[in-house]
Design a protein that fits this description.
This protein has three domains: 48-232, no CATH class; 277-553, no CATH class; 577-690, Immunoglobulin-like (Sandwich). It is built from 22 helices and 21 strands. The strands form six sheets. Strands 5, 6, 7, 11 and 12 form a five-stranded antiparallel β-sheet that branches.
């Protein structure tokens, strides 16, 4: 029997080796793949970790200046009180930044703004709430590596803050008796609904869900603080509004009383202090009242040196009233120096008043806003140059007063503060009076020419100069009243170009102006214009100019006001000494100094008149009455020493008995009728009588 061989055949061994090699190869490949995956994961994780760490550093760097700025102004234990106006301005500034965040303002731009904010005298609670909100936003921002994540995070956060502010429950009356509270459950429900609507943007935000509660709590905390101080400011505004209105009506005791109440409620505020000083000055208070003015204003100047211009103005006026002319001159010149320097700081204080846009919808509200703006930016009564002009005019220095008036309007032009030019003109006409009118007595001989543009929604603007003077360096400021605006309210805008000259006896074009005005959230255009007026600013004069239609309507309204319904005359305006002389010399001799000229034609004849030029300062209106008809002049110009009038074809004089004609001359001081009757020798007799009554 043969022996058996335990060794496998060569073929079997070869197959086994092949399988073993394949297994080892697969294992090696798998190990290599896993290693690559591990290295890739580790690399990506490390890269993401480094990106997150870099983003945390970036967030720290970008948020630190704003947070440090707030810490810098947090009060120490020795500091007391806060300024409610500064507090509201700071709160309103953040709200405005959030409102524009999705349109033009980035997170970085807003942080830069917050890092340069002036937090002096801001309520500590507001500073803490803002710090808390910024710290939560910093945490959220630290998770956003990509640009689109950062953008989405900022837009959603901004909209969430505005949403949080809208969840506040207001009970009571917003004129000062309101109370504010946040229903946090309701607020969370509303914010949750908002988050669902913003799901696309929120999907981009890394770590957003984890920080939701913290962010919402910070937002609601800020909203509670926001409205608590808004409520306090609203109560203060009620008192100050009453003081402003009393001052506008010249009720100085009431103005002082309301201002005192406001000061008691908010000792660090500024507006009521200024109103009280104004009221004490203008009331002609007893000596003890006058003795309070200087300390009150000096205390204001010491406490608010960066906003001292209005107080210096009032102090200068007070010194002038006390007979301290040299001291008043220096103080008013100091105010004139400070107003432009402090313009940014003072105008920035206007921000909270934007939240009170409802004031512009009533006559009383407009008075409040205009007096406030005039105080802060040196317009009207609060213009140092105009007060210096009043001092010069009172001292009999007409040329010095004229120079001061023109200096003021030169400043207004350089600062482009056209909103206040209407307040300036009102002051000039009411308080400088006839001295101001003497600067350019022929203002009624300039007309505003307005026509719709042929293309687009604009107006073609021009000025017709019927006076004998060429005016230089002319800027046209259009004053428009739109539908839904109060009759005393106007929107101002300037023509696109300044003209080198407005020549005498010519019409000057000021180009076209597109009309698009946002009024209470509604866009107004040419079709919404109720009335056109304008102010012409030149080197020689600054004057109202109006369309013919406006002048006619104004004249008729004046005549209607001049007589009671029962037909008896009301008391007309009382002329100054200067105008009394003009009335006596000019109107008294008007019949003697007026000539008539009849130009014959085929059907009806033209009638011309020459009147003394001195009549111009009275801003007269002219109508020719023939029977029951009253005709406006076809030509009304000043040439040489006369006012030239021409009436085209009112009547045919080539008849056996020519009719008598009456030239009506109306002024704000009364009117006079000049009756012309033909004489047998071809001349005309002239008889003057009191004006025709409507």
């Amino acid at each position: 029997m043969s022996d058996s061989n335990p060794e496998a055949s060569p073929a079997t061994t070869s197959s086994r080796d092949l399988r073993s090699g394949l297994l080892w190869g697969c294992a090696a490949l798998l190990a290599l793949g896993l290693g690559v995956l591990a290295v890739t994961w580790f690399t990506l994780h490390s890269r993401e970790q480094r990106a997150l760490e870099a983003q945390e550093v970036k967030a720290q760097e970008e948020f630190a200046p704003a947070l440090e700025r707030i810490e810098e102004f947090k009060p120490t234990s020795t500091q007391q009180g806060y300024d409610i106006d500064r507090t509201v301005r700071v709160m309103h500034g953040l709200e405005l930044a959030m409102e524009t965040s999705s349109e033009s303002s980035s997170l970085q731009a807003t942080l830069q703004q917050l890092a340069s904010e002036d937090y002096r005298e801001v309520a500590p609670e507001v500073l803490e709430a803002r710090s808390q909100l910024l710290r939560v936003l910093q945490k959220l921002y630290a998770h956003q590596v990509r640009d689109e994540e950062q953008e989405a995070m900022w837009e959603v956060s901004a909209e969430l803050l505005l949403g949080a502010l809208s969840t506040v429950d207001v009970s009571g009356d917003l004129t000062g008796g309101a109370s504010f509270a946040i229903d946090r459950a309701q607020a969370r429900n509303l914010l949750s609904q908002f988050e669902q609507r913003q799901s696309e943007k929120r999907a981009l935000i890394e770590g957003g869900a984890a920080l939701d509660n913290e962010l919402v709590d910070a937002l609601l905390d800020y909203a509670e603080v926001y409205y608590r101080y808004m409520e306090e400011w609203d109560r203060l505004c009620v008192l100050r509004d009453r003081a402003y209105l009393a001052a506008a009506h010249g009720d100085w005791p009431q103005a002082i009383e309301a201002a005192d109440e406001a000061i008691v409620q908010a000792p660090n505020e500024t507006e009521a202090h200024l109103i009280k000083a104004l009221a004490l000055i203008e009331s002609g208070a007893a000596p003890e009242g006058g003795d309070r003015v200087a300390p009150l204003l000096q205390g204001y100047i010491d406490k608010h040196p960066d906003r001292s211009a209005p107080a210096l103005l009032l102090l200068g006026v007070h010194q002038a009233r006390q007979g301290e002319a040299e001291q008043a001159l220096l103080t008013l010149e100091q105010a004139a120096t400070y107003y432009p320097v402090q313009a940014d700081q003072l105008s920035d204080m206007l921000n909270p008043y934007r939240a009170r846009s409802f004031l512009r919808k009533t006559r009383e509200g407009n008075r409040i806003v205009e007096l406030y703006k005039s105080t802060m930016l040196g317009a009207g009564y609060f213009s140092p140059d105009l007060e210096l002009a009043r001092m010069a005019f009172d001292a009999g220095d007409f040329e010095g007063g004229r120079t001061r008036v023109m200096d003021h309007f030169a400043r207004r032009r350089s600062q482009k503060q056209w909103d206040f030019i209407l307040s300036d003109l009102e002051f000039c006409q009411l308080l400088l009076g006839d001295d101001y009118r003497r600067i350019f007595p022929e203002d009624a001989w300039l007309d505003l020419v307005v026509k719709p543009a042929l293309v687009g929604s604009g107006l073609k603007l021009g000025v017709r100069n019927r006076s004998p003077h060429t005016l230089h360096n002319a800027t046209l400021v259009l004053a428009l009243r739109f539908t839904d605006m109060h009759p005393d309210d106007y929107e101002t805008m300037t023509a696109d170009r300044t003209e080198p000259a407005v020549p005498a006896h010519a019409t000057t074009s000021f180009g076209e102006l597109d009309i698009h005005v946002d009024l209470h959230g509604e866009t107004k255009g040419v079709s919404d214009i109720v009335a056109h007026r304008a102010v012409l600013v030149t080197d020689e004069a600054v004057i109202w100019i109006d369309t013919d239609a406006f002048k006619i309507a104004e004249a008729e309204e004046f005549r209607a006001r001049s007589f009671r319904k029962d037909g008896t005359a009301q008391t007309t305006d009382k002329p100054s000494t200067v105008l009394s002389r003009v009335l006596r010399d000019t109107l008294g001799n008007l019949a003697r100094d007026t000539s008539v000229d009849i130009q014959k034609s085929l059907l009806k004849d033209d009638v011309g008149f020459e009147l003394p030029r001195e009549l111009a300062i009275l801003r007269p209106t002219f109508r020719l009455r023939v029977g029951d008809a009253a005709v406006a002049p076809a030509e009304n110009v000043i040439r040489d020493d006369h006012i030239h009038l021409r009436f085209d074809g009112p009547v045919d004089f080539d008849v056996p008995e020519p009719p008598a004609i009456v030239l009506e001359v109306g002024t704000r001081f009364g009117s006079i009728d000049l009756a012309f009757a033909p004489q047998d020798d071809g001349t005309w007799s002239v008889a003057a009588s009191p004006g025709h009554q409507p």
